[in-house]
Amino acid sequence: MKNLNLTKYEILKVNKKMTKFLLILFTILIYTSANAQQKESLKEQLNKVLKQKNSTAFYVGNENYLNGKRVALDTAYFSQGNDTLYLYFNKALAEMPFRENSLSHVHDSIRNVLPDSLKEIPLKIWANQLPLQELVPNYYRNNISVDRNRLTPVSRKRKNVVQKVRPYSISEGLDGANIALWNSHGWYYEPARDRWEWQRARLFTNLEDISPSSFVIPFIIPMLENAGANVFNARERDWQIHEVVVDNDKSTGKSKFKKPRKRNADENGFAYTELIQGITNPFQEGTAVRFESRNKSNVATYIPDFPEAGDYGVYVSYAKGDGPVTYRVTHSGGVSDFLVDQRMGYGTWIYLDKFYFNAGKDKKAAKVELIVPEGEGKHFSADAVRFGGGMGNIVRNGKAGGLARFYEGARYNLQYSGAPDTLVWNLFNGKDDYKDDYMSRGEWVDWLMGAPFGPTKNRMAPGLEIPIDLAFAFHTDAGILPDNQIVGTLGIYSTDRDTSVFPDGQSKYASRDLTDLIQTQIVSDINAVYKSNWTRRGMWNSQYSEAYRPQVPTMLLELLSHQNLEDAKYVLNPKFRFDVSRAIYKGMLRFITLQNEQDYVVQPLPVDHLNALFTDVNAVKLAWQPVTDELEPTAVPEKYMVYKRIGDNGFDNGTLVDKPEITLTDLEPGKVYGFRVTAVNAGGESFPSETVAVGMAESSKGEVLIVNGFDRIDGPAIFETESLAGVWRFLDHGVAYGYEMSTTGDQYDFERKSNWLDDDSPGFGASYADLETTIFRGNTFDFSLVHGKSLLANGYSFVTSSDEAVEEGLADLETYKLIDLLYGEEKQTFLPGKDSVANFEIYTDKMINVLSEYAENGGKIFMSGAYVGTEVPKDKAQKGRIGNLFGFKWRTNHAVKGGQFYSVNSNSNFTGAFNTDYTLEQYPVEAPDGIEAFDANGKTIFRYTENGISAGVYYENKHKSLVLGFPFESVKGQNERDALMREILKMLEE
To answer: Higher confidence at residue 712 or residue 72?
Structure first.
């Protein structure tokens, strides 16, 4: 054997072509018999060539790949024994994604530059001590045998800690899967400055400590749970600032705990303390009630006292028991059951779900009951039940954090959740909360599992016996690139720490498979939707704490750069957050199902084209259409769930139907009902549709059709010049999906050349902090409720249809006395990326045609929205057609800063105000339109108090219309909205 030992020759990517690289490699091979002087000369020549190259990666594929690390050939030798050429590369090559077809391309390309006599020679390529083919994930293997060492061992098969009782089964999803994750950093105590602070800087109105939360909390966790998974978060997940605890030791407010009739001796359990000092573990300060099952079920009852109405996450805690029990949650929408296996997850908070509760204490309408199975000889326990995330209550040097708990870092939530201090969150004896925070996340995963997967200091620590399938850390990165380049997505995993296998023998290369699947899915979906040529960075095999500490397959995701404006355009957009979250969910789904050798189905997308119509005096028919997922062929609905809400209460548990329609009967006059629909298949349940509101008046003056045209979700306005750039929230703050939780405040440093000094002075992109603890409303797709309440208060019955259903002729407009067009902050917007448009258009040809036909027959139209004037097309013919239909013309946008307006009708003294502040109740209107009468058939009926600009126009010709330049639903106060609707209806009816 002739060993070349050509060590540390770095091989670089050569502008997507392999020719020069292969020639260099071939040059090395033909100098196998060169003397030392010749070899040194070769090294000098080769290094000179390498220094001339600009690229830092070598990749075979069509994606925009940029690793940032140099690929190096460590060793090359020719084995005369088996006539095989062996090439050993460094770790950088192993950090690239490989598929079976790319392997053959690499081999074929090398052979193409070899002499004819060597073209048939066997070739073996290794990277990071593995044959190149072993770097192909199991999921992508067809001809290569699956590496069974990477599959989940039988001893760690899926088990449900919590199982929501559903009317359908999830046979090809994540039922029984247990996923541990966390959303980046968080608010923490810095002893050097003796202050609580963020771990990262405020940039482009955003912040890494909370930005990943806007993916994880509203999107990733619900998607995984809709697929049947149990999700455990190292940080608090509920942003409800109130916390209600009901416990056998001490409860908050007037909350009450009713103990089981028969009980055994108590053991350690949770005890509520308003402020937690030092290393106190609240799960060691109180007691849990233990009892034995009998012939009749033992029931403990928890009756909460809520300081105000709202959505509250429900957590339960218990000591170890002998099997599953039922927690029955009674909430404003009904009763929901959860099976909780007390053999796992004891001594911490276990999340059930989030429900809407009314204010106060009502043992009939708000409670949690613990129901144990009948039988002899089994023991169970009852500890505390918690409602709401609450405020941070861990004290550091005499100070609590002062923010809602979900903003705080994992270290504090884990202390509050009963994790042991010396093993998980107090690794530096209270001297370094920053390190304790990022190290605690992985140690917490190991504590959830327990021996032999226990925390680093004691692998045999008992833990909570939860078989975690994977761990996932969500971060954004730093870094700036010129010329509108995207920094892109980096994945990090670890195989080299301590051993190459997890404690149960599973290969740590399962982490690489996980990382490849998720990163591939993210890049693929972004490029498909946004046409952005999204940068795929490497898959670093590195000893990052969050990557190597968990003793299960783990990925640390750096999605993009929060410091790079081009990346920030994406992270600020709620549709991007949904799309990326769905990609992450799909990657996890494919990984876990393959690990367990099962088939998978992706949950469907939300339905649309909703349409409601009365079929009887107390019945309404609701219909909808499924939505095709162009990126996922398995995401096909099989059935549907229809959820009902009465008034301001929460939704019920839903009704399962086989077809995309349902007739709902026994509706009572005088009540406002809300309905929303989800699609269901073997992979789980989709996100909900928009809410369709319906109401029947006692002695109805007529029926009104509310047309919900407010579909828009969008990021804030971005502006760019050669020297200045950034986020102009004052121009357009965008529209959040549901609620926005990651905005810090307006940007104030727009200088591209402004340098970073520290996190308090981060330079270009620096932003204020006045909004960073404000959770405010975006588009909840639920504003037909607001319109409906005021219509019902004025004696009108109403139903709701989506604008798509009206455009397609699914609603018969001629049957309605009035059409109420709800356009909120709808306007056409462009997504980040190339040639991608979001069709949030108000004046579509289909809609104008349908409304024009209705108007020709003497119909009456009420329309409101912040951009109804701004969105009128510039084309003269279209402008005239819209003017003749609605009776107004655009005068100005951003008509006023404040929201006050008044009636100019001589018979009215009405005054009101719409919302311009950031609140949970109503979304802020930053750009109301000024509109004026189109011709002599119209007149101004409302004006803005600030400057007298026309705010509303009444028009009468063959038909009647009334248009507001601000959204009706944004008007403050129920009484004020009712009075405004009365003014509107009076004009349209007289």
So the answer is: 712
Taking the C-alpha atoms of residue 287 and residue 276, their distance in angstroms, rounded to an integer, is 17
pLDDT for 790 beyond 90 = yes
Exposure string over 681-706, b if 16+ CB within 10 A, otherwise e: bbbbbbbbbbbbbbbbbeebebbbbb
Q: How far apart are CA 428 and CA 430, in angstroms?
A: 6
pTM of the model: 0.94
Category of 689 on φ-ψ map: left (φ > 0), alpha (ψ -120 to 50) or beta: beta
CA pair distance 538, 558, nearest whole angstrom: 11
Pairing of strands 9-11, 64-65: unpaired
pLDDT tens per residue across span 855-876 = 999 999 999 999 999 999 999 9
Q: Which fold has domain 176-238+405-595?
A: Aminopeptidase (3.40.630)
Tell me the two tokens of residue 595.
Answer: 């690990």
Average pLDDT over residues 744-759: 95
CB 95 within 8 A of CB 537: no
Which pair of tokens denotes residue 948?
A: 């007298």
Burial class (CB in 10 A: 0-12, 13-18, 19+), 233: buried
Q: Please report, to the nearest 10 degrees, the dihedral formed by the alpha carbons of residues 463, 466, 467, 471 taken in order.
A: -90
Sorted by where each begins, the domain ranges of the chain are 2-136, 176-238+405-595, 244-387, 811-989
pLDDT in tens, 397-450: 999 999 999 999 999 999 999 999 999 999 999 999 999 999 999 999 999 999
Helices (H), 857-916: 876-886
Domain covering 244-387, topology: Jelly Rolls (2.60.120)
Q: Domain 811-989 class?
A: alpha beta
